[in-house]
Write a structure and sequence with these properties.
Helices cover 55% and strands 7% of the residues. It is α/β, with parallel strands linked by helices. The protein folds into two domains: 10-99, Potassium Channel Kv1.1, Chain A (2-Layer Sandwich); 116-243, no CATH class. β2 and β3 (36-40) form a beta hairpin. It is flat and about 70 Å long.
């Protein structure tokens, strides 16, 4: 099936994302709630929750030892009982009006990598490739190949017409022409050798077909068009781009070992 193959290709269940605001550069512990990573301060959580105060007291460390729960993105403290929205709401209360100073990694690296992915490999000159560095360039090329494969799968497998409209009098003809319509238009937009369209542009052109839908029932066409515009299949590609950018950010941007925590900064300011 269309969705099953794209899901297998990109394995979305393995993706983890750093929270845009509560992955704090000088945080002490990393938590995983659903598929979102939070890097926060033990002192801040202990002030607002007896549960967290007792948990951190048992650990006996201001920061977890490398390789133990909470020490890194690969070894987070997992909280299965909460949703991302609930933990986010709790942190908003725990931190109050305090915000970390300076930009987070995601504020500059992730958007830059997302913009890079829009370029074709051949359009990036040699000097620029050297400036990107081996790690970024290698990840870029590998990801482009995977995204091209994903694009071909999407182009070749039309979204299924699960249920025809009640007014559709010829379901067989409607389904056949839907398959032909997808291959002769949407697939061609996506796979055009000279000018391949990005998903948003391809959808815009696709919905302009108007009355050129053959034997498809107009109501079936409207339903399928809404499915296409949701972009479910391409959301997997967007998630993979963001995940790759976050992994590169974590691997390439090194934070200083000795860094004041918020509690230490507050104590320093009060003197």
């Amino acid at each position: 099936m269309f969705e099953a193959q794209t899901a297998t290709l990109l394995a979305p269940s393995l993706l983890k994302f750093r929270h845009r605001h509560f992955y704090i550069y000088d945080g002490t512990h990393i938590f995983l709630v659903e598929n979102t990573l939070f890097k926060v301060h033990a002192t801040q959580l202990s002030r607002t929750s007896i549960t967290f105060e007792e948990m951190f007291a048992v650990g006996g460390q201001s920061r977890p030892i490398e390789g133990t729960d909470g020490s890194s993105d690969d070894h987070p403290i997992i909280i299965p009982e909460l949703s991302t929205n609930m933990f986010e709401l709790y942190l908003s209360v725990a931190y109050g009006s305090w915000k970390p100073e300076g930009p987070t990694h995601d504020d500059f690296f992730v958007p830059a990598f997302q913009r890079l992915i829009e370029f074709r490999i051949r359009d990036i000159p040699g000097p620029m490739r050297k400036k990107l560095g081996f790690e970024v360039w290698n990840a870029f090329v590998d990801l482009k190949e995977l995204l091209d494969e994903h694009r071909r799968i999407v182009a070749c497998e039309e979204p299924p017409l699960i249920e025809h409209a009640a007014c559709c009098t010829d379901n067989t003809a409607c389904s056949i022409d839907w398959r032909q319509l997808w291959w002769n238009s949407m697939a061609r937009f996506l796979l055009d050798g000279r000018n391949p369209q990005v998903f948003r542009e391809a959808v815009d052109r696709f919905q302009e077909l108007g009355s050129e839908i053959g034997r498809m029932n107009p109501e079936c066409w409207k339903t399928l068009l809404q499915t296409v515009k949701k972009g479910t299949a391409f959301h997997l590609a967007y998630d993979l781009i963001e995940e790759t950018a976050q992994q590169l950010s974590a691997a390439l941007i090194t934070e200083p070992d000795q860094m004041l925590t918020r509690a230490e900064l507050d104590a320093f300011s009060s003197n």
